[in-house]
Amino acid sequence: MGKGLTYASKTPDARGYVAYDQDEHAIWALLYKRQLEILPGRACPEYLQALAQIGLPADHIPQCPELTACLSASTGVEIVPVPALISNERFFELLASGRFPCATFIRSRDELEYLKEPDVFHEVFGHVPLLSDPRFADFARAYGRAGLACRNQQEQDVLARLYWFTIEFGLLQTQDGLRTYGAGVISSIGETIYAIESPIPLRKPFDALEVLRTPYRIDVFQTLYYTLASFDELFSVAQSDIIALVRRAIRLGDQMEAFPSADPADAQFHTQRG
Q1: pLDDT tens-digit profile of 41-97?
Q2: Between 165 and 113, residue with greater pLDDT
Q3: Contact 49/132 with Cβ under 8 angstroms?
Q4: Helices marked H in the chain — which ranges?
Q5: Which of 41, 105, 125, 222 is buried deepest, with most CB atoms within 10 A?
Q6: What string of DSSP letters covers 175-243?
């Protein structure tokens, strides 16, 4: 687990570029190399193909304007540098308008394995490739619109489960077996292996209403993953009345099913996350 370090966001210049030092680029290169080594056979083909097409640099942190240019022809999503933590309202506004927020700091060498706050490696390596898929981009926009329609904090909290179990920690059933597409998994060396290979977590077919009724924890590997049959399911959700589903989920109440222990001491796979 992390050591409670705090990070200062970097301020981009007038062109949207951030000045990173040599060590920060070296940390990116290290993270990039080790993730690339373990993703084959674990990340879904759509992600791997998108990663190759975008062509993220292996030796330095890419800049938001460069990433925006890479997405312009496919989905037009704009990557926007932001402080590490922004308000829910700002997050929803950005997504709804086709703009994806991207933190400007990168983790330290002391926190390579686990980081509570999303850093630029998580944002770019984990999220950006699949934002080139129209289905994924449409889902992100629809999620943002639903967030803006929330009437209170409870609705926002329940809606967050949809993002968590798809964009962050979603799995996909492919013809070659179970693979991951969630950024929280793909950017983590420990959870990439755990999510696909560990016997500990439950894995359930995706159902939007059930997802919205499922609590989660942010401080451990997941004890439950939801699995898509295709990204077309995300597109279908994007076309639905998401906020109506949120309010129905609240009326029905949270799922009370007992899940496996999420104690990091309970399994070897619970040793690395970040």
Answers
A1: 999 999 999 999 999 999 999 999 999 999 999 999 999 999 867 899 999 999 999
A2: 165
A3: no
A4: 22-38, 45-54, 64-71, 88-96, 120-121, 134-149, 153-163, 183-186, 189-197, 208-212, 232-238, 242-252
A5: 222
A6: TTEEEE--HHHHT-HHHHHHHHH-SSSEEEE--HHHHHT----SSS--SEEEEES-THHHHHHHTS-HH
Q: How far is CA 238 from CA 20, 133, 144, 161, in A?
A: 36, 13, 10, 15
- Kindly report the number of other CB atoms within 10 A of residue 126's CB atom: 22
pTM of the model: 0.91
Average pLDDT over residues 189-194: 94
Could you give phi then psi for residue 261, rounded to 5 degrees? -60, 140
Q: Pick from 257, 252, 95: which is nearest to 160 by CA?
A: 95
d(CA 198, CA 192): 10
What is the rounded end-to-end Cα distance, in angstroms, of the chain? 9
Assigned superfamily of 22-271: Aromatic amino acid hydroxylase (1.10.800.10)
Evaluate the CA torsion angle 170, 189, 30, 1 in order and state its sign: positive
